């Protein structure tokens, strides 16, 4: 499974010949200024919630690529009004068999509103179960006991979790989340972009390592094998 990191909580995964982009926030991120948004190809876009730092480039990328956007009902309606043609609604608790594998939409404990202030529906995370591996993207969230249910649905090869603290969980709770879902490998997102969420990279990697968890912190624009 190839994963490309585009900064903040935006990353892309290649699965079954399909390219899947998550939470597209690039043009508003000074740290990602070298990323050419128009060069990003994708077949699907998954959106965890409506905050600007997860949806800013969704409309432009969806229209440019023709990708199918997967999001909760309220975000799906908002995007449709913005001219996005291809959408698939998913709310927490639901699952769907896509061509690349099965996806379950799970609870995230956070807030959600659209960039225009309208209601953004329930925040969510996603669990992917495929023949190329299974992974959990939590979206922006607090630590929640619901995470313990995830390993009952699928064994998790990689947990993709926010680690910037203050606005989401930080390293300590992300480590507990890994243990809850049964993951020994994690990738950090939602860090460094703003002053509130800057982290010490080496210290954080060592925190995870002490608990037997490998933490991946790819550079923006870097593609890694997971």
Provide key terms for this protein.
single chain; 226 residues; alpha/beta; Metallo-beta-lactamase, Chain A; seven-stranded mixed β-sheet; 6 helices; 14 strands; UPF0173_UPF0282_UlaG_hydrolase; UPF0173 metal-dependent hydrolase EZ428_17930; hydrolase
Architecture overview:
This is UPF0173 metal-dependent hydrolase EZ428_17930. This protein is an alpha/beta fold. The protein has a single domain (2-225), classed as 4-Layer Sandwich (Metallo-beta-lactamase, Chain A). Helix content is 20%, strand content 28%. The chain contains six helices and 14 strands. The chain has helices at 52-55, 58-65, 73-81, 150-153, 171-181, 201-210, and strands at residues 2-5, 11-15, 18-22, 44-46, 68-71, 87-89, 95-98, 101-107, 124-130, 133-137, 158-162, 185-189, 214-216, 223-225. The strands form two sheets. A seven-stranded mixed beta sheet has the order 6-5-4-3-2-1-14, with helices on one face. The chain is globular, with a radius of gyration of 16 Å. The model has no long low-confidence stretch (mean pLDDT 97).
